[in-house]
Specification:
The complex is a heterodimer of chains A (about 775) and B (about 160). Helices cover about 30% and strands about 20% of the residues of chain A. In chain A, β1 and β2 form a beta hairpin. The longest helix of chain A is centred in the first third of the chain and has 28 residues. Chain A is globular and about 85 Å long. Chain A starts with 15 loop residues before the first helix and ends in a 12-residue tail after the last helix. Chain B is α+β, with helices and mostly antiparallel strands and about 160 residues long. Chain B contains five helices and five strands. The radius of gyration of chain B is 15 Å and the shape is globular. The chains are: A alpha+beta (about 775), B alpha+beta (about 160). At the A-B interface, α8 and α21 of A face α1, α2, α3, α4 and α5 of B.
């Protein structure tokens, strides 16, 4: 994603600065490259972290697999469950090769250890096309995998979890199976080659001997795994590719699933927090005198502005309601500083100026788009805009911390446990090894829980009351007003049509802040820089599958005091809206059907064609709709190695209500591990993106966010949720792509294009407003 | 001090009258299946049943429910539609992150107790909860599935 890591192979970083930079770059979601897992020996990642041995009565086979004497197979899941079904998909990979039933599977959150690093997220930062199999790309990927393991950063993001685990976890299962077979063979005094397995048992060819995995586990784990165990031919898969019930759903239905906000510890106190409402402001004074005498109040803690967090004041009390009341009673004066008069209109004007005159970086230049545009007789031009967006996870930001005797224990829903541990250690003034981190289920992540603000704050607050566990909970107001927002963005397009009505030239100029730069400045300020390109700013705008002989894609970096971060699908979330809306405009200008216009530009991209055609056919593209104000819109977006097309059926009810009746979605993610989860993630991504398209908007006035809570920040609910139909297009295991994010990008342009088809009015700003 | 019946057990709540029921349930009584989402009755994550009616506990002072019967997800098995709903939730694979689901389930219990065979419009009107994972289509299917299994009158 940045020039720092490509295209040359990256040496093992020696300087801390370089190391930090790579970490930051690796963390920054986004994707364009198929993981180089085959270049990287999976055996490297089968070792047993020392801490696993002490954890349980079950037998540890490797970093990923434990088997109990009852035959239960526990898979250590090194990614965080935030709704995407990873605590089922990853165990399925192990079970397929280990040969056990889903009913035997258990999952457990893996501890923090370098073996669990997410290598794919780092490799995804490299600026190669997914289909680039050249030696430079291959060597760079290999190097990134090695670097990732050295850094050992465990992260969940960039829709990478399955791709990162795909080879490793199948090897982990196969290796453990080989050990179980060897143990049975040894017991029976027969060659291992005479033994087979069947759903949790080793069988002897004679047919009259069988031993359960549970009976063999203890001895089997002492036997070294066979070298070069072959993996199954995918055609022989028994579990992978067939929908399995998610392992986490029963407890999430019965209300027993633990989230960080549910942690209860003896003597626990609760903290409420108020941040400086103006971005970049500081605390002038907080008059603690009166509130320290209020019932239940234990402490008032002032938190200075830091790289991760705004200036804040917290109150610790014996319950959260008392803490919050005391905070409300506290007289706080803030100094808003230089941004106290900033508002959205001024920001937008600044972006318009940058669009016209700012210094741009090129992300793609093919042919000479400018010359053709300047001489073209058939030009189409349009400017688009999207606002900041909040993540608004259902579980408000929270973290529980206990600081005692130079040790620290943390409970937090997070997408980056390695970093959470570093940041807590730094805040508590202890070594990383002295921090124990617990990651329960996340009540939504969407990128928000890659941030460390709440971890730093809770640790600093807990350090003020040593020995007392403190649960810091942000109110929803704080959550919406102090998020790391999806960037506000603006783009101007110019397109030139040739005599046949085909696109002869394409110029796209984007203005936005950089998520990677903002994120790096928060976590590793020394590494923050605007010297490097941030791929996430322009992902989804360059390397498009459409054939366009002349194209120029450039990005102008904006500076704003508003912190921006990774929001489900990151740059794709706005670039897909811009690109797919403008393609639609050009199609109409050329007098062509939007579907046919796209297909004509996809002659060399059969996978994209097939996805688009699948969605269009299932949606009845080209057939008439019953209702007069109704119409369809279509959009296509490739992100995180998956290709998704969506057709939205929209009815516009005067004067200005946009009712999305039905969405038909087709996805090519190579093949689906757990198909029902892929369907669920498409539904989820569509609803998340639709909330943004119809309602999502964070605006500033007086340097502060204007929206305070739901429904001021409104989202799609049951009554306005469309019917959703998902089709999985299979293209092969070699094309594995992510599914957590790719459902989001196409929905806004599909709906906006449908609004145009229904009303003749082009939507160029989100959220959609039809007066 | 308010006296409440929580999941069939009578309890004294040793807290201020104005304290919202949500925090009494979660922090005084440890019933953490009830979730905090917004604090302003806008999202429904905190929904519980008060004398059978779906109620947003984050804005309900504990004094307002003195003497009343409160059901949380922890006590949901005492309600007639529960088993059908639980099984339907698993069959339709509804939850994703899961955080809002207990609130939606409490609202669904109240709905099916009042209307054993709800229409889509009745589901829209009764389930106003927010789910950021977008499980709405599956919630709808699961409610219909549970309704199909329940007798015409489930109370």
């Amino acid at each position: 994603m940045s020039e720092a890591v490509a295209p040359a192979p990256v040496p093992v970083p020696k300087s801390p600065r370089r190391r930090r930079l790579l970490i930051a770059v690796g963390l920054a979601g986004g994707a364009m490259v198929v993981g180089g897992a085959l270049l990287y020996s999976p055996r490297d990642r089968l070792r047993k972290p020392a801490m696993l041995a002490a954890l349980s009565a079950t037998t540890t086979f490797n970093a990923w697999v434990r088997i109990g004497s009852d035959g239960a197979v526990t898979v250590l899941v090194a990614r965080q469950e935030m709704g995407q079904g990873i605590t089922t998909a990853l165990p399925m990979l192990v079970a397929e090769e280990l040969d056990c039933d889903v009913a035997q599977l258990r999952f457990e959150q893996a501890p923090v250890d370098a073996v669990y690093a997410n290598a794919t997220l780092l490799a995804d930062g490299l600026p190669f096309r997914p289909d680039d199999d050249g030696w430079v790309a291959g060597l760079a990927r290999l190097t990134q995998y090695k670097v990732a393991e050295l850094l050992g950063v465990q992260t969940t993001g960039g829709s990478t979890s399955v791709r990162d685990a795909w080879t490793i976890l199948r090897h982990a299962g196969a290796a453990a199976r080989s050990q179980l077979v060897a143990a049975a063979a040894r017991r029976w005094g027969v060659p291992a080659a005479e033994c087979t397995t069947d759903r949790g048992r080793v069988l002897h060819a004679s047919g009259n001997r069988a031993l359960g995995y549970g009976e063999l586990a203890l001895e089997a784990a002492q036997i070294p795994p066979a070298r070069n165990v072959p993996l199954k031919d995918p055609r022989a898969f028994r579990l992978i590719g067939k929908s399995q019930a998610r392992l986490d759903i029963p407890q999430k239905t019965e209300g027993t699933a633990p989230y960080a906000i549910d942690v209860r510890l003896p003597g626990m106190a609760y903290a409420a927090i108020a941040h400086c409402p103006v971005f970049g402001g500081v605390l002038k004074r907080a008059d603690a005198g009166k509130v320290t005498r209020m019932a239940g109040v234990r402490a008032v803690v002032e938190l200075p502005q830091s790289s991760t967090s705004a200036a804040a004041v917290a109150v610790v009390a014996d319950n959260w309601w008392r803490a919050r009341n005391a905070l409300a009673a506290l007289e706080i004066s803030w100094d808003g500083g230089t941004h106290a008069s900033l508002d959205s209109a001024a920001q937008r004007a600044a972006y318009a100026e940058l669009l016209a005159n700012g210094k741009a970086r090129e992300y793609e230049r093919i042919g000479d788009a400018k010359a053709i545009l300047d001489s073209s007789q058939r030009r189409v031009e349009a400017t688009y805009f999207v606002p900041y967006l909040a993540h608004a996870t259902m579980e408000p930001m929270n973290c529980t911390a206990l600081v005692k005797d130079a040790r620290c224990e943390i409970w937090v829903g997070n997408q980056a446990p390695t970093i959470a541990r570093w940041m807590a250690a730094k805040a508590a003034g202890v070594a990383s090894e002295q921090v124990t981190l617990h990651t329960p289920f996340l009540g939504g992540g969407f990128g928000r829980r890659a941030e460390m603000d709440v971890v730093v704050e809770a640790t600093m607050i807990a350090a003020r009351v040593p020995g007392t566990p403190v649960q810091l909970i942000w109110s929803r107001e704080e959550d919406l007003q102090h998020d790391t927002y999806r960037p506000m963005a603006m783009a101007r397009f110019r397109g030139a049509l040739d005599a046949t009505g085909a696109l002869a030239a394409w110029h796209n100029r984007i203005v936005s802040q950089s998520c990677t730069q903002s994120f790096t400045a928060r976590l590793l300020p020394a590494a923050a820089s605007d010297l490097l390109k941030d791929k996430t700013t322009s992902e989804g705008a360059y390397d498009l599958a459409y054939s366009m002989p002349n194209r120029l894609v450039e990005h102008v970096l904006a500076e704003q005091p508003v912190p921006v971060g990774f929001w489900r699908s990151v740059g794709h979330s706005y670039n897909a809206f811009f690109v797919e809306s403008f393609i639609d405009e050009v199609a109409h200008a050329a007098g062509k059907d939007p579907l046919q216009f796209r297909l004509a530009m996809l002659a060399g991209s059969p996978r994209h064609r097939r996805v688009l055609e699948t969605a269009a056919r299932a949606a009845g593209w080209g057939t008439s709709l019953a209702s007069k104000g109704a119409a369809r819109g279509i959009a296509l977006a490739e992100s995180f190695h998956s290709i998704v097309a969506q057709v939205a059926e929209v009815e516009v009810i005067p004067p200005g209500t946009v009712q999305v009746r039905r969405v038909v979605c087709a996805i090519d993610c190579g093949r689906a591990i757990n198909p029902d989860t892929v369907v669920a993630q498409m539904e989820s991504g569509i609803v998340y993106g639709l909330s943004a398209a119809l309602y999502g908007e964070i605006t500033l006035k007086g340097g502060s966010v204007e929206q305070t809570n739901f429904p001021g920040y409104e989202v799609v609910r049951m009554a306005d949720c469309p019917a959703i139909e998902v089709h999985i297009v299979e293209s092969g295991w070699e094309h594995l792509g992510g599914v957590g994010e790719p459902g989001t990008p196409p929905i806004a342009p599909a709906v906006a294009n449908a609004v145009f088809a229904a009303t003749g009015r082009r939507v160029r700003d989100l959220p959609i407003r039809i007066a | 001090m308010a006296k409440l019946t929580i999941n069939g057990i009578e309890k004294d709540a040793p807290v201020e009258d104005a304290m919202p029921l949500l925090w009494v349930l979660r922090e005084t009584f440890g019933l953490t299946g009830v979730k905090f989402g917004c604090g302003v009755a806008a999202c429904g994550a905190c929904s519980v049943l008060v004398d059978g009616a779906a109620t947003r506990s984050c804005v309900t002072p504990v004094a307002a429910v003195a003497g009343k019967s409160i059901t949380t997800i922890e006590g949901a098995s005492s309600r007639a539609p529960w088993l059908a709903l639980r099984d339907a939730w698993i069959a339709e694979q509804v939850p994703q992150c899961g955080y809002c689901q207990m609130g939606i389930l409490m609202a669904s219990i109240a709905l099916l107790e009042a209307k054993p065979k709800p229409t889509d419009a009745e589901i829209d009107a009764a389930i106003t909860n927010i789910c950021r994972c977008g499980t709405y289509p599956r919630v709808r299917k699961a409610i219909h599935r549970a309704a199909a299994r329940l007798p015409e009158r489930s109370r």
